[in-house]
UniProtKB/TrEMBL annotation:
Entry annotated with the keyword Protein biosynthesis: no
GO biological process: cAMP biosynthetic process; intracellular signal transduction
Protein name (Swiss-Prot/TrEMBL): Adenylate cyclase
One GO molecular-function entry: adenylate cyclase activity
Positions of transmembrane segments: 36-55, 61-82, 103-126, 138-156, 168-186
Organism annotation: Marinobacter psychrophilus
Signal peptide start-end: none
Domain spans labelled Guanylate cyclase: 244-379
Record keywords, A-Z: Membrane, Transmembrane, Transmembrane helix
Length: 477
């Protein structure tokens, strides 16, 4: 008849080992109040009220059978629903509660509807329905209880209402009070346990976020995002895609390594790779790997904006890297590094095989194919500060990027000569209206991108240029 609210674990609290040692997940199976205990309590009260009525001569002796059923039913319900609860605990709990509503209604009808005992039983039933299943369960339980009560009342007690002895009413009130208090106590314990579980889950979530952020530093952000969002599985699989492939290295880095201590050289290299990585990510490139001072980047996977846009983004990235090297050289010169470091870059566009390569327990997300080799060959052919692209890449960017035809060259691993083009600059940045200016001489470096200068900085820059021009004129005179 009377059921306990939904539960989390029989003990009513989270044990010390609520976090699973293997999985690290907080337990979410704490019981508020065991169904079996609540149902047994309610039906015991029903049996006691019946027996009190029979002893006072209000009820017929045949109701001993109903009292016996009230004592046995909780045990039968627990036994028959044990396996079903393991499969779908919530559904079975709600179905049993509807059966309890029908039985409670029949009992209330036999009491004559208006007795204090009937009201107490109805109160316990409604509280349980509302706590377990909310408003919907309360409405269903109320409807079934009312229908059963009216049916039994008009079938067996037409035209009069039964008044139970005071002892039976007192017993019903006591049982109802105890049950409601127990429900409130267990509800409080559940709320406390859930708050504790929430804190554990929050702590685990923050720990997982911190761990994932650490792991993200070992792979490209695009690849990391597709794995952690479930878009891609960590298994050995590849596909053919048309990508723009980029290679670069530092000309003069080997000579520099002979002049500097390893610690200082490491700082220079890490600073360079960090600056270049920021530029690559700004343009949407997937950073494949660092090999010493060499960088390998590709565009078009895991996400692609189309072959033309991917190739244009790759070349634009290379131009920005070349421009940014002037700033880095000036900074390194101020640190006493006199070797004029330059980068050379090669770009190729074509079909490659991209995906996870390696072993089941150690994978590397990378690309292979002749276009990868060709981009590497372009990088080796480039002069310091030069960007070389293949004919396929040139055909996709020629409307936006000014390039110079350098003819055909024979490269290792390719039987036919390869058409090579030198990247000059964005067409919009050429001529008198170009936004970018750069000049570099001994004792003087100018790097200006007028599109990025705001109005406040413009005044300060003009003042600095006027002061510099005044000093130069004064020295000449």
């Amino acid at each position: 008849m009377i059921r306990a609210p939904a539960n989390i674990r029989d003990t009513g609290k989270i044990p010390a080992n609520a976090i699973d040692s293997a999985e690290g997940t907080p337990s979410t199976t704490v019981h508020i109040m065991p169904d079996y205990l609540g149902r047994t309590l309610g039906y015991a009260a029903m049996a006691a009220i019946m027996i009190a009525g029979i002893a006072d001569g209000v009820h017929s002796v045949w109701l001993f059978g109903m009292a016996g059923f009230a004592i046995v039913w909780p045990h039968l319900a627990q036994l028959f629903s044990l396996d079903a609860r393991k499969r779908n605990s919530s559904t079975i709990r709600q179905h049993l509660l509807l059966i309890d509503s029908a039985i409670s209604g029949a009992f209330i009808g036999s009491l004559g509807l208006i007795s204090i005992s009937a009201a107490a039983i109805a109160l316990m039933m409604m509280v349980t329905c509302f706590v377990v299943g909310g408003l919907k369960q309360w409405a269903s339980g109320s409807l079934i209880l009312s229908a059963a009560a009216l049916t039994v009342f008009f079938l067996f007690n037409p035209g009069y209402a039964i008044t139970l002895p005071p002892v039976a009413d007192l017993l019903a009130v006591i049982v109802a009070g105890v049950y409601i208090c127990a429900t409130a106590l267990f509800s409080h314990q559940q709320a406390k346990a859930l708050r504790h579980a929430t804190l554990l889950i929050q702590a685990q979530r923050e720990q997982s976020i911190a761990l994932s952020q650490k792991l993200s530093k070992y792979m490209s952000p695009q690849v990391w995002q597709t794995i952690f969002t479930g878009q891609r599985d960590a298994r050995l699989e590849t596909q053919r895609k048309k990508l723009a492939v980029f290679f670069s290295d530092i000309q003069g880095f080997t000579d520099l390594s002979e002049e500097m201590e390893p610690e200082a050289l490491t700082d220079v290299l890490n600073h360079y790779l960090n600056e270049m990585s920021q530029i690559a990510l700004k343009h949407g490139g997937t950073i494949d790997k660092f090999v010493g001072d060499s960088i390998m980047i590709f565009f078009g996977d895991p996400t692609s904006r189309g072959q033309r846009a991917d190739t244009l983004a790759c070349v634009s990235m290379a131009i920005d890297m070349r421009k940014h090297m002037k700033i880095l050289r000036q900074k390194w010169r101020s640190q006493g590094i006199k070797t004029p470091l330059q980068i050379r870059m090669g770009i190729s566009t074509g079909y490659t095989t991209v995906g996870n390569f390696g072993a089941e327990n150690r994978m590397d997300y990378t690309i292979i194919g002749k276009e990868v080799n060709l981009a590497s060959r372009m990088e080796h052919l480039a002069q310091p500060g030069e960007i070389l692209v293949t004919h396929e890449a040139f055909s996709l960017i020629k409307d936006s990027i000014m390039c110079r035809d350098k003819g055909e060259v024979t490269v290792k691993g390719f039987s036919r000569p390869i058409a090579v083009y030198q990247v000059i600059d964005h067409r919009c940045d050429l001529g008198r209206n170009r936004s970018f200016m750069e000049h570099e001489h001994s004792g003087f470096t100018l790097y200006l991108d007028s599109e990025k200068v705001n109005e406040n900085d413009r005044v300060a820059i003009l003042q600095a240029l006027d002061e510099a021009a005044s000093r130069l004129r004064h020295q000449r005179d």
